[in-house]
Specification:
By secondary structure, the chain is an alpha/beta fold. It has twelve helices and nine strands. It has helices spanning 29-38, 57-66, 70-81, 149-157, 161-168, 182-191, 227-233, 280-283, 309-314, 357-371, 395-407, 416-441, and strands at residues 14-17, 125-131, 171-173, 237-243, 262-266, 297-299, 304-306, 378-383, 448-454. A nine-stranded mixed sheet has the order 3-1-9-2-8-4-5-6-7, sandwiched between helices.
């Protein structure tokens, strides 16, 4: 059975697919099945029909208990994976403690096996996907109304078939809250603590409080434990791709210092999608290096350093000979990867789609899945740069978006930034689809917990161009948007 619950909606988005979970709250199953058979609240802004009785108080409490708070659920999963036999202490009433178990075709809870035939539980693979600055109204399932012309246009601009598929076959958490900006939200997720106890500001990476060598840096204090460290204790192979933004002052602050076996990505709030530099459009400020820092690294057991041209080639990027890869205050290429500095005979070149930063992230993530030894559980943290500024995307996705909008009966998008953002959403959805397909190809999908969520609300200021309708506010605000 599937429950879809909503009232006043909240941001950001969290979509959870729970399949064959090892840790099952069997005592909640009869209750959730009873609720599922007696209550159905349709997603959306419309109120339930007046003829339908409101759910009793016990049902509302049960529903709240089953709305799993993602960091808490992952922390509990890590604790059990680490082999802790002690029962966890009672949680405060404001913290959700329920688990949702995947169902087999006969409707009974599925118990993953270790292959020995003796019923031993097998630890599930975990793929945690984090979108950056994702707007509430930029998810397809939140665009089901098309009564007015504006609603029809908004529906035509949003295309997320892969995410919508996960929602239909999983659990949609409509009241999942996170901090309002990047670094505190990510520090909270990695540490399992509220942001107020970890980090509350997007501190510049060069910040250093000379009187505090534990927590006097940007990101997570050095003495805190990260989720990947707990997963490693539980026997997981831990990998990360994408945005970190949780500290870089010392090796302890980096992804490797926090428990990840490998990492491909960047440290700061954002970088350029095409040359991984730090133009003003990415961070909005001028740093002490005059924005000449290239923020793109690969860490593993044998190499820790920048992503070189040779590594880019391994990641599928064949760089144009005329592309000088010179970071600066102004990006060398435009939003679609075409040269705008007119470097001699190469003034008209455009970079290949495979050199888009997110394409290289996806290439790396797919390689992790395809080469993974399934005798060990996998923990993959896929941290998108999308949809953070600068708004950049391959031209092919802009063309694809324009075609989809037209086929959906919409008008051409009349805002350049909104069009870029919508195409970036389409790109992100495609990458999620690639991950799911790779898990299916390796026969890992049915034994994988997939969590998709956003770090904070979508930015509704220029150039952010997200859409959080009907929620108020957006990134940086304390409203639900």
């Amino acid at each position: 059975s599937r429950l879809r619950v909503s009232s006043a909606l909240a941001s950001p988005i969290a979509v959870v697919r729970l399949s064959a979970m090892a840790a099952c709250a069997s005592d909640l199953m009869p209750l959730t099945q009873e609720i599922a058979s007696s209550i159905e609240l349709e997603s959306g802004l419309a109120e339930p029909p007046r003829s339908r009785a409101s759910p009793p108080r016990w049902a509302r409490v049960a529903l709240a208990a089953c709305a799993v708070a993602v960091p808490a659920a992952l922390a509990l999963l890590a604790q059990r994976a680490a082999g802790s036999s002690a029962a966890p202490p009672p949680a405060p009433t404001s913290v959700a403690t329920g688990h949702v178990v995947g169902l087999a075709e006969d409707g009974r809870p599925r118990t993953p096996q270790d292959g020995s035939g003796n019923g031993t539980r097998k630890k599930p693979h975990v793929v945690l996907i984090l979108a950056d600055d994702y707007g509430w109204g930029n998810l397809g399932v939140h665009r089901h109304f098309n009564r007015t012309e504006d609603q029809k246009q908004a529906q035509a601009e949003v295309h997320t078939p892969n995410l919508d598929h996960l929602v239909r076959h999983g659990v949609l958490l409509e009241r999942h809250y996170a901090y309002k900006i990047c670094s505190p939200s990510r520090s909270s997720l990695q540490s399992g603590r509220l942001a107020v106890h970890v980090n509350t500001v997007n501190t510049g990476v060069t910040y250093w409080n000379l009187g505090d060598n534990v927590s006097g840096f940007a990101g997570i204090p050095r003495n805190m434990t990260g989720i990947a460290q707990k997963m490693k204790e539980g026997g997981y192979k831990t990998h990360m791709v994408g945005k970190w933004d949780a500290g870089m002052a010392t090796p302890q602050h980096t992804p490797l210092g926090r428990g990840y076996d490998t990492w491909l990505g960047y440290f700061q709030h954002a970088n350029d999608y095409w040359n991984e530099g730090m133009p003003l459009a990415s961070t909005g400020n001028l740093d002490i290096c005059e924005n000449r820092f290239v923020d793109f690294s690969l860490y593993n057991e044998t190499y820790r350093g920048p992503v070189t041209k040779a590594i880019r080639k391994e990641l599928g990027c064949e760089m144009c000979p005329g592309h000088l890869q010179i970071p600066n205050i102004k990006s060398q290429v435009n939003a679609t990867g075409c040269n705008q500095l007119h470097n001699g005979s190469f003034s008209n070149y455009c970079l290949s789609d495979s050199c888009y930063e997110e394409a290289m992230f996806n290439h790396r993530a797919l390689d992790i899945i395809q080469s993974h030894d399934t005798s060990h559980p996998l923990f993959l943290f896929y941290s998108f740069h999308l949809l953070h500024t600068p708004l950049q995307v391959p031209e092919s996705y802009l063309s694809q978006l324009d075609r989809l909008v037209e086929e959906s009966g919409g008008r051409p998008i009349d805002s350049a930034n909104r069009r870029l953002y919508a195409a970036m959403v389409l790109y992100m959805d495609t990458m999620v689809g690639n991950l799911v397909a790779a898990l299916e190809d390796r026969d890992m999908y049915r034994d994988t917990l997939i969590v998709f969520m956003a770090d904070n609300g979508g930015p509704v200021y220029e150039p952010g161009s997200a859409n959080n309708h009907p929620l108020k506010g957006g990134k940086y605000s304390d409203w639900e948007g």
